[in-house]
User: Which sequence fits this backbone?
């Protein structure tokens, strides 16, 4: 029954897929109460953000490091998640990773920065967000002043980094275009676009490639180090 409903949402353009540069689908997001614009379009003035609550259904692919790029972020609204299947490790600032399992309900305040890390196979969650309290998301990537192996041997493989605050557009602008996972409407047209990216990756011999945790950390450190030296923006 649920699969038929999700297929209906796909066919009616109410599903978006987060796709990385290799053509891997990281997350499929189904909008039960109406499609919402991409945050980049909201910040650039191309679209108006949704103020009313919504229910999303997330199908998150299995991953060693999760689909959030290990970047803490603040939602512009309070949220509640219910894990229908699978599970993942969730991180909050200053708190050890928490394992979320099937049947768990999770409430998050709009002032709580978090990210989803290692994700189990066949993970699906129901994600409800309340009324929008802020105009924009806040993304909090981590930057290091030197990319080296020191922390690998002296800090339990954890990098000692400086957290900075960016809006979604500032965050994506810091990454090269082909490094930024993109939201694609997951209908027939969108699926053809994803297939083209996958075919191009196959020709280059990189289809199916996934970055390791260390590679993800190194890439983000190199991209955001200049921002860490500047005064962070105020949280919106």
Assistant:
């Amino acid at each position: 029954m649920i699969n038929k409903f999700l297929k209906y949402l796909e066919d009616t353009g109410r599903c978006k897929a987060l796709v990385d540069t290799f053509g891997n689908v990281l997350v499929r997001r189904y909008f039960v109460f109406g499609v919402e614009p991409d945050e980049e379009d909201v910040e650039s003035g191309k679209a108006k953000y949704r103020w009313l609550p919504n229910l999303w259904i997330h199908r998150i692919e299995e991953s060693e490091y999760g689909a959030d790029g290990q970047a803490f972020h603040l939602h512009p609204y309070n949220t509640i998640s219910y894990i229908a299947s699978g599970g993942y490790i969730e991180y909050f600032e200053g708190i050890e990773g928490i394992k979320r399992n099937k049947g768990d309900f999770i409430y998050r305040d709009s002032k709580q920065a978090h990210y989803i890390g290692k994700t189990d196979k066949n993970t699906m969650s129901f994600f409800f967000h309340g009324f929008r309290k802020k105009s924009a998301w806040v993304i909090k990537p981590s930057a290091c002043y030197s990319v080296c192996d020191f922390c690998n041997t002296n800090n339990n493989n954890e990098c000692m980094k400086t957290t900075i605050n960016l809006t979604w557009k500032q965050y994506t602008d810091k990454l090269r275009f082909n490094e930024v996972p993109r939201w694609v409407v997951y209908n027939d047209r969108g699926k053809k676009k994803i297939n083209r990216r996958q075919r191009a990756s196959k020709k280059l011999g990189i289809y199916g490639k996934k970055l390791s945790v260390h590679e993800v950390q190194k890439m983000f450190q190199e991209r955001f180090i200049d921002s860490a030296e500047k005064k962070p923006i105020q949280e919106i």
Remarks:
- The chain has six helices and 15 strands.
- Residues 188-204 form the longest helix (17 residues).
- Helices lie at 2-11, 39-43, 150-154, 168-174, 188-204, 213-228.
